[in-house]
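Forwarding these from the shared drive since the link keeps breaking.
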Amino acid sequence: MAGDDLIPIFGVCLGLQSMALAFGATIHRLNVVKHGQISRIYHDDNELYEGVGDVHAVRYHSLHVMLDGSKDLECLASADDGKENGLVVMALKHNIRPFWAVQYHPESVRTSGGGEDVLRNFWRLAQNWTASRHRQVRPWDADVEVTIGKPWPNLQRLSHTSITPHLTVATHVLEHIKLTIPDICEAIGVASEDSDFVLLDSVAQPGRFSIIGCLDQSSTRIAYQLDEHDVVKVTRHGRTTAEQFGSQDIWTWLADFMRPRRAAGGEESIPFWGGLVGYMSYEVGVANLGAVTPHRTPPLASPKHSDINLVYVDRSIVMDAMTGKVYLQTLREHDHSWLEALAVLLEFRSFSPGSQRSHAPRAKPASQMKVSVLLPDKDTYTSRIRRAQEYLFAGDSYELCLTAPSRISVNNSSGNGRLSSWDLYKTLRRRNPAPHAAYLRLNSSILVSSSPERFLSYSRPHGTVCQLRPIKGTVRKGPSVTRAVAEEALVGSPKEVAENLMIVDLIRHDLHGVVGDNVVVKQFCGIEEYETVWQLVSVIEGQAASENDHYEMGWEVLRRSLPPGSMTGAPKKRSVEILHTLEDEPRGIYSGVFGYWDVGGGGDWAVTIRTCFKYDARDQRQDSHQSGPDLHDEWMLGAGGAITALSDPEAEWEEMMVKVESVLQAFQDVRT
């Protein structure tokens, strides 16, 4: 690079290492890897560091630079790792060319003092260099974008026109009702397992609203599988058709589906007026990344769940746990008679003595139900942890969320009916109450979840606020494990904080790319209490500038943020590719998301963890209460953990088993 092709360059992390290799330095492995670790950076207060002061910076690297007598490069800053790694180069400059670089990450949320100030100094140095050579600065135009890409943030609107609401929400409010969510579900027929049902259930804080879809034959079901490319299956009035979306993708097709269904007139405090409810698989997000992941098929015995499985809910019930109010809602025209009939039914159930159903599941003799569990092989899992760490030591990733499936077989040798998935959900709900629980019985898939983790929520426009709540760090509860003990074990652990920090930085990157500059970390590594565990939770929020805010803003953030970073590791694309080599089969429903997209433009999606699911064709459902020999169900349950360079394989295995047991115990309880 010389003459007119020479331009100022600022490198970060690998950028520093690339510059070092190009000009005679060498690259070596650190003795102790620094992923998500904060170090003090020592500098001489010149060049990049003029007027910067103290710097404490986040490091994400397992390799480091040794100048080895390079005459072209000069060290501007370093970190002192003591006995671990000694002095480590943290910043370089080229002595002749306008090249500068830092090894740490100036953009990290936990970098203090060496971020924006250093970038401003680079810009000053670059401008001075450009002016001294009488360079003409070109305007940013389409030709520049072809060469170096679009400016940031790159907001690709699905819709370029304002969307006028087409529907009106009709609402009937019930106050002082004496019914629980299970009571309401049973009042409207959830126990009949030959029909679809959707429940998004906030059983614990910080959850607040529980949502029940009131489905019938006219409710539109949408199913899509990645290997069917441009075909989506739509079921209306019991009739399924295959619709092609051609040059569009499934995200655009779904946006087109929702556009004429935009609504207004509902209670503003209620986040759901109606809309799409269901789940998306992990692989749906992977497909958006452009990651190199050769096709894998599930085991022959595993039926194929849809990758996107949604239903359009135009009649719904929403309970506000804070106020106790119940909202009956419809988007259908001239539907007041349904609202009145439902209100009468629920009020009768509420105020009639003995009409409420028991929250306990129907017991079956232990001799009838036999539960067998096939757990992941411990030796295989721990060996894969060590393989994952080799990738980390080599600099291919900072963190890898390694997972493995468990299989739960339920047999009823007496033939007196199968295990009720609704009973299973009620048992899990009671044992492990969670802010993002769910019971989805949709098409041929049944999902039972007690997820503690919100992936993404977004409020209605205008002023759309997007919130993500990644969980990284888990401690099993016990009599002696108080909040103070859990805080010491989690917040006091460099490993646990580093795990969380890496995902927080990844999520900030995803969110900045859509909404722009206004992204803040509302909570970093806070301790939250759940029924069986303490967890380390961070909260990140972003809001687009008013000119970019629109009805599909949240949908665009969802599309560009999947799969959840807490289920991949960082950096996301490369981590997904590595995990593909370490795991035997597609994850499917597990570690994807479930939730809703509201007709008012808001949405809320949880990470599919602490969740079991099974394939249950309609003909199987219809036979579920009939007698017959050896009725059999097979449920899947995924679990895993974030592997870092500091991970202990034995401890990681134990953490995974804590997560498995939080769901597995429900199978033992429901059968006895």
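-- next protein --
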Amino acid sequence: MSCCGLLTVQKQPVPLKSIEVQLEVRDHVATVVSTLNYENKEDKPLEAVFVFPLPGDAAVCHFSATIGQTQIIAEVKEKQQAREEYDDALSSGQQAFLLEESEQSPDIFSLSVGSLPPGESASIRLEYVIELAVQADDGLRFCLPAVLNPRYEPQGSEGASVQVTSVPASLVPYSLSFSARVSSPRPVSKVESSCSLDPLQYLNTEQTQATVKLAAGHKFDRDVELLIYYKDAHQPTAVVEAGQASAKPGTLMGDPVVMLSLYPEFPQSVMSSVSSCGEFVFLMDRSGSMGSRMNNSESHQTRISSARDTLLLLLKSLPMGCYFNIYSFGSSYEHIFPKSVEYSQETMEEALKKVEVMDANLGGTEILEPLKHIYSQPCIPSQPRQLFVFTDGEVCNTKDVINLVKKNSGSHRCFSFGIGEGSSSALINGLAKEGGGHAQFITGTDRMQPKVMQSLRFALQPAVVDISVTWDLPKGVSVTALSPPITTLFQGQRSLIYAQLTGQVGASSDAAEGCVTVKYSLAGHPSQNQLHFSLKPEEDTGLTVHRLGARTLIRSLEMEEREHRGQQDGGVKEKVVELSVQSGVSSSFTAFIAVNKGNNKPIEGPLVHRDVPVPRIILSLHFLYIFSSDSNAGDTEGTIIKQPSRDPLLQLVSLQKASGCWVLDPALAAALGKTSEEVEKPKPASVNQEVWATILALIWLHGFKMDAKEEWELLAMKAVSWFRAQNAPCVAECVEAGNTLLGCAVQRDVLGL
């Protein structure tokens, strides 16, 4: 074989030349069109197989191939039938294209391009729609997964895992171009990214439409992440989309579908009270890949080091009276205490000693077994269980893990954190969604600590219970929910509802209105949010809302099928296949298949198989670059990397006692940048040492670390609660003396004292 053009690591030609991605964002919904350009420069016909990541909650709704002047649009068919048609086409010398979702994880797809003759080019067009997740700072996050790290496959796992051919990001043999158009009823205030972008271009004076492009020369060393910020983002909205004219009324695609976006706002009186109970279980990934740098650059700390610092902040911020435990996992798992213990100075110190020596040295990523163990522990009465899962999310058995969390969703809330590039969105979002919690992704230059503390604030919010949704619609219009029932509400976080509207929708008058009411109970207070909306359907939305509604229903049915596998007659699977085919949205039981039947001349000769490699992050472990494309070698043994000296904030935080106070000692003086004598001298005589030390620590936090307030706010609240219980004298005098000592000007009321 003569090797020419782009080559894989094994010196094989790569038939994929370029990927073009166009993103269209309307408010909080994105349509993504990817075009993959293939060319066969070999002297034999090719079959090219490309395994690549997509967002786990994407609704893949279009797949077509263009060869020369001929465009073939793929159809959705039952997966086995599609595979057989593909194989039959290849064996008879026809061109065929197959796109299917992985059995194990909904965020991995496999694209097979079959019978590409020598010298022939093919252009593949793939389209999907997706909701953009709201971040803690109100930004909407879009992520184009460009990195697919090898997935760790647990021992004894059933079913064939997806075989991924991967190369270091710097050696990816094809190019990526990416452009985005953003439009919203509200002005676009900014667009940020972990990648280099060309400047944002506004398309109108109201700044409600804008375009942005990825700068040339993307290195494939990270996912392409966009954070889109609108002015007044927390506006509830409703979109009623007209059904497909060619579809039968009464079916999902034939009827109008409504998408409601709700942002519940809770009473401030309830929100200011932080729960003082709960069982907090922290599950930390210590697989080898956690030893890599946070931002794949030598100046950044490792993932495991950042996780250790985060655990310090979490442990210092927990309320007295709660219970806690820390688990860590790799190929095996460990726990600090045999069962959750009451939070006290002694248990906190014991846990912190063990956290300090945690390293990325436990091998692979087997998350299922520690989760089973945690769920086997009885819940503690009156201490609601809150599970925090930290992982770089590279596992094969994503669906099994999510299924287990869903099965136990009645007994806990699950908060998940995806660390680093290439973490599985299906795993991280699935854990939080099924566990009634909140998901966060920590990529690029993000600091882990503020995102985790945001989730701890959510966990300390009283749980919202007795959630119900009621509809008030005109006579002759009925509603069928497509979304599963809402089980979780958080302050300021969006809840989405999809529903099919049947009957004379919008026909009686253009002014016809519907109303939805969400009722719930929060800390014993009954509350409700209402949204009135026009029933007049929008015509030009490209069936985006229908496809997202279909995807939501498909995912619910797939989960139901997995839960009852073997107990049913296959009725749920048939329902999924029928819905997938009708809506044109892929599922785990269906695939897109396209066969070029217009090509009369069969392609001669045996097919040469080519795997298209995907980028993988190089784990920079002690300046050693490690490559592996074996799915079981997806994690490497971590090597200890010398960390920079401790951050002054963490130094001060590490000295806080479990009760919330600080002690006046040389370590505190050093953390404040003073000598022991300088710190002790200005203390008013009638004030005890702990009160004085705590006031100094609070002044230092407010005076020097306001930019990191999200990280220390909860532990400062605990310090203020401790302080108020002391009924200390001379508070004003202490604050004035502390400000003079530290060179600050923090007011007493700002400190909350």
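The first helix runs from residue 79 to 91. The radius of gyration is 28 Å.

- D.
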